Amino acid sequence: MSAQPSIAHPGQSIHLLDLNQDIFQHIVSFLDRPVISILSKTCRSLHNGLAGQLLRGTVSVRRPLLVAFKDFLDADRSRYEFLKHWKFITVPHTATYSPSQVSQDVDVCSILHASHNLVSLSLDKVTPDHFQPKDLRAVFTAIPQLQELSLLSVGPKYGDVLHGVLPNLRILKLDFSTDRLSPLNFLATHRTTLRELTLEHIWPQATFPPDTHPDPFPSVRRLHLNPISSPSGLSTIARCFPNLDALTLHTVILDEGWRQEHGFYAAVLEHDQQGAFAPFARWYDRTAETVRAAGGTWARLATLRALDSVGLFFAPLCCTAERLEVVQASIMPEQMAHVYRELRPRVVVLPPESSPNAFLEAARCHLVTLEHAPSVSHLTVRVSSAVVPVLPLDQVLAALSQALPRSSVSHLLLELSSLGEFGQSEELKAFYRNASDVMQLLSSSIPSLRKIFFDIEGRDLKAWEMDTAGSGAWMEMNEWVALRVISEEGMRDSGRAD
Q1: Taking the domains of the chain in order of start, what are their residue ranges?
Q2: Averaged pLDDT for residues 367-375
């Protein structure tokens, strides 16, 4: 058994992906035994309690375990009432799972019909081989309390499965396997209820045609798009989702017509000939002006997250963003500086690097561009086990001190994740004990810096507060303050407090 679940609190995720089918069958057979003693009554009660606790979390089940899972639920029908968060994963016929192991005779929809209290559901392959459209629609009619839904690989025959059902749906993730479905028509009856929407593998030109005015989704506050067609459809997207707080961009496509019409190739050629950034800057400014002329986008976003920073340059959003999170920084420093000037973020979150050399390169090339971003006062740098402890923590801080001397960063948060044993090591404790020298180096190198926060795997938050003389000391951080500082709202609050 490769996965060992533990008793969970309500809402905590419990993944049953790799539980051996024999384990399910053992539990079921035990619960079905005649009660012959007080001891067996006690054991039965404990098993039932464990079953109820397991089902309160997110239960993930692969298709080969579906027979045992259904037996497990059917052994005591009241268990269906506990099932609130279910993720069903289809496994192809492979050498690991033979066709005889795959539960073809168990109807997934029958489990869903009996699970009236489901509030979240994930189905990873919505095709006629797994769910007939009429059956899936009937399931959605039977689970009106559902609030969160993920449908992946949605095929062309499912255009109306969400129409008029799931009145409480708030969070929706859709991944399409066809260009014959209009995502906006697919969602038409949920315009005023959806709060968070993810659209994956869409055909952007067909979904958000330029110079169109689709019926808006005014309640959507968080939007994740992959891909978008830059930049011709940006104004259409903004008209469709006018009240966004948070936007995540995955892949940006520069369509060929736009490249030719707006002089992209000429800018590339001029850049290659001159070796200067100015041609790209002029192209960006022309592109941004075109987006504004088409109606613009949003005035302000609370959070903007980009999978790749290159999309931020080639899809000028023409808005400000309070918090900018970059998952992968892969554009020229000059381009990133241009993005900072346009977005004017106050909080910037940078991605973890894959090696010590990559981290040092990012510090030299990308962090230094923050000198062109006077709006940035709060910086989060994520450091993974690929960097620390291979690169000692004091060297990490020394690299930051060289990269940020002319920045306006006052609050620096280092998120140290996936450190394993190092997160509890004597080396780390020794760093905390002897931190004053490197902290004074940071303070003298970065005049604007006032506080440094160290978050060790989300558990151990320490903060060093500097005084105006450049020295400082560790602050005592209780749990409430730690949560307040790590969260987005906390980072904003701490900035206002100072």
Answers
A1: 346-498
A2: 90
